[in-house]
Amino acid sequence: MIWNKTAECMSDKKREDLQLNRLRDTVKTAYEKTPYYKKRSAKQKIKYSDIKQLSDISKLPFTSKADLREGYPFNMFAVPMNEIVEVHTSSGTTGTPVVAGYTRRDIDTWSEVMARALTMAGATNEDIIQNCYGYGLFTGGLGVHYGVHRIGATIVPISAGQTKRQLQIMQDFGTTIITCTPSYALYLAEAAYEAGINMRKIKLKSGCFGAEMWTESIRNEIEKRLKITALNIYGLTEIIGPGVAHECEAKNGLHISEDHFYPEIISPDTLEPLPDGEKGELVLTTLTREGMPMIRFRTKDITALHRGKCACGRTTVRMERITGRSDDMLKIRGVIVFPSQIEKALLEMKGIEPHYQIIVTRPHHLDEIEVQVEATKEIFSDEIRHLEAVRDKIENHIEKAIGLRVKVTLVEPKSLPRSEGKAIRVIDKRAI
Ligand code: DLL
User: Fold this and answer.
1) Residue 18's Cα: distance from chain center in Å?
2) What is the pTM (predicted TM-score) of this model?
3) Does residue 279 or residue 217 have the better pLDDT?
4) Domains in the chain, please, with CATH?
5) Contact 188/166 with Cβ under 8 angstroms?
6) 241 lines ligand 1 (CB under 6 A)
7) 8 A C-beta contact, residue 124 and residue 153
8) Following DSSP, what letter does each residue of 264-323 receive, concatenated?
9) Is the CB of 239 under 6 A from ligand 1?
10) Ligand 1: nearest atom to the Cα of 301
11) pLDDT confidence bin for 94, thresholds 50/70/90
């Protein structure tokens, strides 16, 4: 099933014409209406009328997460506040968050792209969709919610957590599709196994998993344990939220809703565009966004694009699953964390040396962070009780800084590996 054949199966020519028109409109609106872009366009020579063909987009400067933070809270909006009907923020809990504003039409677009995504997972108005993405400022919960409403399926807006209840409801309500992070899907599978639930007896048929990196082997595990088809869903707050791209049953890349989001791949080193098929950083431009047009947003996500008709009949470009980032951003249980935030918090504390390592693990399918930090000689040779008090203080301080509880281990001075080049600060032991 295809939700919107006109949009998803368009000829290249038709799509490119549409994209060019929309790109020109977007640049014009952004440069005339958004305080942030207005300021920037005053400094640069390029005008929207210089965009004569799609490839002219490369003449425009990039937008970064830092730019969005600078525009906090509403300087990226292109419409007056009385036209903004909803706001969301990125899942980072500290620092200046990225704020996204939506007009009524943006919510409509979001519902549309999410309806396309859910249809790829086999959703029709007969389905019962259990949405375990968090509701609130995070875009996961409400993004999926709007898509389910658009299709006319039944939404179970259970949000994240409460695993036992999730399993109970899944059985009692006859949930057919589940939406959550891939790590939570594995956690649910484990809990279902422990509770003696026979997955063959429940109605679940597929799931849309995303918001964090995962691999084919994780897909195989989820499919085997939950007895479902597991599909990949991609998106980000800055662009709209979930629904920028989604896999179809061919599992051969994620179809980008190209009539709304224009993708490019650039080299993170030279910042030059790369041809289709080559891996690099994904850069996205919104083509229809009213509330917050985004021009050449550097996602920092690493992928490659592939064109040509898919076995499912869609003609939209497909992106490979994300295999990494061009920065050091970590997503821990869905929350964005930069190692530099932990470093900053650590260095504000007494009794420790500036040598640390962040170890990320995924015991029982949920992310955990351990921060190993060298204690000073004085502290280390002090009583255990004192050492524990210092450790607790640091744990509390980091929690305040990043919004997540981490385990701190104070280690002997000079015991952590030293590096002659780049220090290895993060050891990611998760199987991703
Ligand atoms: O994670 C939106 C979302 C919600 C996507 C639900 C899918 C499902 P943010 O919190 O702003 O938004 O985080 C965006 O998460 O730049 C990627 O690094 C990562 N990410 C999102 N989806 C995937 C995925 C939501 N399928 C950031 N594979 C992005 C790998 C993903 N990474």
Assistant:
1) 27
2) 0.90
3) 279
4) 1-326 (3.40.50.12780), 330-428 (3.30.300.30)
5) yes
6) yes
7) yes
8) EEE-TTT--B--TT--EEEEEEESS-SSS--SSEEEEEEE-EE-S--TTS--S-EEPPP-
9) no
10) 18
11) low
